[in-house]
Amino acid sequence: MEKLNNIPVFLKEKLEKQYGKECLNKIFDGFLSDKKVTIRVNTLKSNKAEIENCLENENIEFESVNWYKDAIIIKNAKEIDLQALEIYKTGKIYLQSLSSMLPPIILDPKEETDILDMCSAPGGKTSQISAITNNKSNITACEINNIRYERLKYNLEKLGVKNTNIMKKDSRFLDDFFSFDNILLDSPCSGSGTINLNNENTYKNFSLKLVEKSCRLQISLLRKAVKLLKKNKEIVYSTCSILKEENDDIVKQVLKDNNVEIIPIDVKDIPLLPNTIKGTITVMPTDLYEGFFVAKLKKFK
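RESULT FIELD:
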């Protein structure tokens, strides 16, 4: 339990105030847990039967996920082991956390529609949207950071993603003549839900300043998303944070603008934390899940 001392005091205080002592202890258990490796079958290049057959041939044990047919939990191998496999090298699978698979599923994109992924690198969710729509939607994928932009391009090409316009641009400054049927805003955040006390890289840069900076960016991005969305169409807003100022409070600010409404999200068999907006979800960090927030909004005027 000495590892808990690595959590910043201000974060402990925020989480206890927000969730209470009982939930806080469960969150800490999640931060301390050894994370299981999970993969997504890339249906643009393969299918689950082929991937399962390959894993069996490599003596890799796995299990399915009942809420998503293309997700697989790996039981006896690490990421580096999977990266050595041909199915990884050829883009037939993608290493992706279960929590990060939720936003594209909840977005429920359709073929022959225009979709914006506002903060798309490294491309996991963009490629998942493309897979869900069988490469038959028109995706605009934005990324401002040069290194992340190049990684995004590489991943989308490797995974066989088509019909995607990759833009090296801050999506807050897209021209307002753009309009979209669906928008995914998986927003930059503090990463408070992804803290793994067995991996210093997940928390060494965590700070109150980072939280405050993230909040300013999030509200700006979400308001821009609403502006770019067509009437009667939907946005999914998500973060890998479990702090309400990055989640509930951001969504509440946009709801006050009185042109969007909550579309309730219904999930089963996923560990959830309490939050303050009915119909949104906050995923609890565990050995299988990262802490994650997802809200679905519909523009009505």
